[in-house]
Amino acid sequence: MHVLRALQQSPDSGVSVTGLARMTGLQRPTIYRLLAALVEGGFAKNVGGSKRYVANHNIAMTEPGQDPRIELALPILKNLASITGDAVFLVVRDGYESVSLWREIGAYPVQILATFAGKRQPLGVGSGGMALLAGLDDETIEKIIAHNSDRLEQYGGMTGREMRQLVQNTRTRGYSVVGNYAVRGALGVGCALYDSNHQPYLAISATAITERMPAPRQREIAKLIQNELKTLATKI
């Protein structure tokens, strides 16, 4: 709460870890850990292209009318959650991060619900974010990985090298498969929708416990998502 209050009292240009340590009297390693929790929870965000942070005053978008992408994708999310029985997510890119805009929960009794509307994390550590990251050009990917390098370790020991391999795997398959990074014991499958300039516009992912996601089912779910996304292609 001390760190969050310091962020809320800081200017829009943000404050560095050193500045937060000075304002709160906490050690830098502690600041890094608390910032990671605040960012993961959507309460704080990085100021794009810098090492400064600000409080996020709009931590969640929970009404379809608040973002046109939610209204666009909501019928598809509901349908996929019904068909698969799993949790389905709408994910978009915001600079170096991914943001979950919406979550639909399926009927299967065991669900992976650590991700929620408004949650931010480094682009690529989740299956939706990886689908978006893999659709970018190589130069942009390298900038994003380098920018997030200090935070990747917090996500299941993710490294830049592993992220590059996941990008390559995603490009080869045509969909992402990411397990045990953002959420332990979970595996997600994600696919991206591209705009007229062939830039990633949004991604939809489905996540379940790892035991429920063998390779054949991964392919089945990816095909379901891809087929649904085709219906959106003419609407963006």
From TrEMBL:
InterPro entries: GAF-like_dom_sf (IPR029016), HTH_MetabolicPath_Reg (IPR050707), Tscrpt_reg_IclR_C (IPR014757), Tscrpt_reg_IclR_N (IPR005471), WH-like_DNA-bd_sf (IPR036388), WH_DNA-bd_sf (IPR036390). Residues 1-57 form the HTH iclR-type domain. Residues 55-236 form the IclR-ED domain. GO terms for biological process: negative regulation of DNA-templated transcription. Signal peptide: none annotated. Keywords: DNA-binding, Transcription, Transcription regulation. Pfam families: HTH_IclR (PF09339), IclR_C (PF01614). One of its GO terms (molecular function) is DNA binding. This is IclR family transcriptional regulator. It comes from Pollutimonas subterranea. The lineage of its organism: Bacteria, Pseudomonadati, Pseudomonadota, Betaproteobacteria, Burkholderiales.
